[in-house]
Design a protein that fits this description.
single chain; about 350 residues; Poly(a)-polymerase, middle domain; Beta Polymerase, domain 2; five-stranded mixed sheet; binds adenosine-5'-triphosphate; binds magnesium ion
């Protein structure tokens, strides 16, 4: 890794940008407030149901003014999810929540609403417990080294500015970008992040027969990355350099679970041995390994699945553009984020 000599001049502007994207405390208070309101309304109809925040409002990678993601956890005995969502939509509508909409046919069925008191919009899904658990994993990683949170905010801001954070257009979700940042920091030498799933189990959950186990006493890992002195500017430079020039897109699987890259050849082998890896078979058969990002818990789930042969080019060209700008441009903090 050979950074430009004056790379550290970019530390201050990147940190300022990071600070400006963090939600202020009063926003967090409002989110809690809305959750309490929703909890009250839901429990009148479903007293045993529990509400959890997940996604960027709970994983510590959320920007100011983002929507919140809520998961309703409850036992479903012979009741249809759609019926519950429609019922919930009714309840919310008659209690002055705005823009209430039940999307029962979406891949993840939800009710959408907007709270006129706090101005916050929210999506509510049912029993997406795995998302609640992976939210905790991401939040735990963020507590180990501040540079993860700084890097993710800058990368998400770049991805949104360049329009490569749109799964419906074949680019990657915010969740996928966070996994790429964690993976990248696990690969630094010395490593900046450990592999929590490779350590002693202190947290365990069995969610829909998926075993989620990892070391979650992250307060004990506060000094983990201190042997690596790389600055945020150096890391942003190296992040784009890595995805532009160092990653083998055709053959490598990005795996936060193992803390390394796996080879797709090995995955093919695993597919033959395990039914659980079924989703990868189809991809192997189609030879569509354009970018492979393994979900940390649901290992058969490839977050790169949304990427097709057109969008992979867009994505890789954007990584190359960013790497070039970080290396040669006189004002990367502006150029990098120029709207596409
Ligand atoms: P944003 O700030 O862009 O809204 P976000 O962190 O909320 O970012 P989303 O991509 O909206 O990210 O995802 C919300 C949450 O849903 C994630 O944190 C993750 O827990 C879960 N999730 C999203 N996409 C997937 C996926 N493809 N597979 C598994 N879980 C996912
Ligand atoms: Mg979200």
């Amino acid at each position: 890794t050979t950074y430009p000599n004056d790379i550290n001049r970019l530390n201050a502007p990147f940190l300022t940008m990071f600070e400006s994207l963090i939600p202020p405390n009063e926003e967090k208070v409002k989110q809690k407030q809305l959750l309490t309101v929703l909890e009250k309304l839901v429990s009148k109809e479903y007293p045993e149901a529990r509400l959890f925040l997940y996604g960027s409002c709970a994983n510590s990678f959320g920007f100011s003014k983002s929507d919140i993601d809520v998961c309703l956890a409850m036992e479903l005995q012979n009741v249809d999810k759609s019926d519950i969502l429609l019922k919930l939509a009714d309840i919310f509508e008659s209690n002055n929540l705005q823009n209430v909409q039940a999307l029962t046919r979406a891949r993840v069925p939800i009710v959408k609403l907007m709270d006129p008191v706090t101005g916050i919009s929210c999506d509510i899904c049912i029993n997406n417990v795995l998302a609640v658990v992976n939210t905790k994993l991401l939040r735990d990683y963020a507590q180990i080294d501040v540079r993860l949170r700084q890097l993710v905010f800058i990368v998400k801001h770049w991805a949104k500015s360049r329009q490569v954070n749109e799964t419906y257009h074949g680019t990657l979700s915010s969740y996928a970008y966070v996994l790429m940042c964690i993976h990248f920091l696990q690969q630094r030498r010395p490593a900046i992040l450990p592999c929590l799933q490779g350590m002693e189990t202190t947290y365990f959950a069995n969610v829909d027969n998926v075993e989620c186990a990892y070391f979650d006493q992250v307060e004990k890992l506060h000094n983990y990355g201190s042997r690596n002195g790389e600055s945020i500017a150096q890391l942003v430079w190296a992040f784009f350099h890595y995805w532009a020039y160092c990653h083998d897109y055709a053959n490598d699987v990005i795996s936060v679970r193992t803390g390394r890259t796996l080879s797709t050849t090995m995955i093919k082998y695993l597919v033959r041995c395990s039914k659980r890896a079924k989703d990868w078979t189809r991809r192997v058969g189609n030879d569509r390994h354009l970018i492979c990002i393994e979900d940390p818990f649901e290992v058969s789930h490839d977050l790169g699945r949304v990427v097709d042969k057109f969008s992979i080019r867009v994505l890789r060209e954007e990584f190359e553009r960013a790497a070039q700008i970080m290396h040669y441009d006189s004002n990367p903090c502006v150029t990098l984020f120029e709207p596409y």
